[in-house]
Amino acid sequence: MHEQVKLYSETTNHQGKLEKYYCVRVSMIREILAYLYAILIVGILESSASFMIRYTNDLQTIVGRGKNLEQQNQVERNRCSLTTSYRLRDTHTSSKMLLPQDMMAAQSKMLYQMNKYYGERVQARMGQVQKTIREVCKVVQEVLKEVEVQEPRFISSLTECNGRYEGLEVISPGEFEVVLYLNQMGVFNFVDDGSLPGCAVLKLSDGRKRSMSLWTLVAQACDKCAYRDSVKMIADTTEVKLRIRERYVVQITPAFKCAGLWPRSASHWPIAHIPWPHPNIVAEVKTEGFDMLSKECIGLQGKQSAMEGDAWALSFIDAENRLLQGGSRKRCLSILKTLRDRHLDLPGNPVTSYHMKTLLLYECEKHPHEAEWDEICIADRINGILLQLISCLQCRRCPHYFLPNLDLFKGKSPSGLENAAKQVWRLTRELLTNSRALEKL
């Protein structure tokens, strides 16, 4: 009886390792198909005869890896059959023989490269950003303290905890946003009928304007604070922006927190047939709600509406951050942000960190199982996201994750998007065809 239980346990272990092997193989097939698709959509970017020669060679490299996997798969099926019968005689045979050594070596090398890149490039970026945040927040806190004294209805989202600041959204290494929540709002009318993509109409009962004279309050606070020589208001904008030490820009945005509510324009989420995220997380996200920001909305560019003056932008920052918890999702996002800052910081800012974050959320739907977000899978996930980005840039459309009618590329120049597509393709091509690409990225 003891031998039967042991045999069953080791046979189950065989099956688990084979399933993991087949998952990796399926992932490689998806990579090949995605590469083929990317060639089709990017082919128009280059008209020279060298295009087909170079990309055919690249494809042969990847397809060769796929053929090797197919051969290894057949060997494994034969080996599995022999090993199973052999285990009837000796249950102590190592189960590691079920995984091809070449595949395990390749995965180990890629994991090593990713971890090295994260330790050297990504953490260096994160350290520099944290240093900048500390420098910026000291100034912004002084300004906002004075604003809150003058107008108690404003409550800053900026808090310090154990030397780290929370409530500051990093737009880029030199651009940030702080939210000022509005308290004592009283009665208000909230209209979310989808007529203004990415926005909802908020009308306050006492007829207060959405700016709440914040621009004036912040300007006065800048003149009074201890850092008045280091901070200036940016005058040529309708939004409240500070320039700190002539190097950093901080936008201060009035907001209203809609806890326990979920907008009608995002009612389609989550998609029914996709097993991610877990229903418990969905319930948590919807209970937390969303924010409404008094700022220019992408969806209103080029539009004229009678309600435009009362339109507030919908923000799901907290919901997005909650969804990216677990597995290596946040690690993946940090790597993508680093790649973006080092290689895709282009004129006109066609590709932002928020675009990367949005495509990462879509990738979570495409790969809903937690096993697909292990450290060893990060390279596949990053390649998939970059291929998605190329497709979006070519189609000149990047739908918001929660609000698919809102195009995050709206207002971007076609030439800027085309140039970005070329640059992303060069980056992706290097990652797909060179196993040591991260060493020089």
TrEMBL record:
It comes from the Eukaryota. Pfam families: Mab-21, Mab-21_C. Residues 164-326 form the Mab-21-like nucleotidyltransferase domain. InterPro entries: Mab-21-like_nuc_Trfase (IPR046903), Mab-21_HhH/H2TH-like (IPR046906), MAB21L/cGLR (IPR024810). Keywords: Membrane, Transmembrane, Transmembrane helix. The chain crosses the membrane at residues 32-53. Residues 329-426 form the Mab-21-like HhH/H2TH-like domain. Signal peptide: none annotated. Belongs to the mab-21 family. This is Protein mab-21. It comes from Melipona quadrifasciata.
